[in-house]
Amino acid sequence: MAMRYDCKNFDSRSYATGEVVRKCRLDLAPNAPWECPEDCLGFEKRTVDVGWDYGSLATPIVTPVDGVQGVDKNSAAKALDEAEDIVNAITPELLAEFKALDQAAKKKKKKRFGKKKKRD
Questions:
Q1: HSE-up of 13 (CA within 13 Å, CB side)?
Q2: Predicted confidence (pLDDT) per residue in 70-117, tens digit
Q3: Of 11, 64, 86, 98, which is most buried, counting CB atoms within 10 Å of its CB?
Q4: Exposure on the CB side of residue 108, measured as CA atoms within 13 A
């Protein structure tokens, strides 16, 4: 089954470069952005635009993608899983690095004003 654009957990984001990211917020679609599982436990009907009638000038919220040509779904899913593993592996190091940078910035900010003068 194609991605369920009417699911509350479906997320789509377009970037200035023209790249479009489509994903499941719950990470329950192993073949995203191509397919949702047939009997997905996380599927909830989107309620914001339910019952709305779109006129001839309106465009759909998301342009559906029926299939991607030239991409093997299994190899693409494997590559995405490997990329996710790499990001998850370096996350603790990055968080520690940013924490150290924040602490250094705080120390620098304190030094900027100098020492307080002693009152007699």
A1: 6
A2: 667 677 778 888 988 998 999 999 999 999 999 888 877 665 555 666
A3: 11
A4: 6
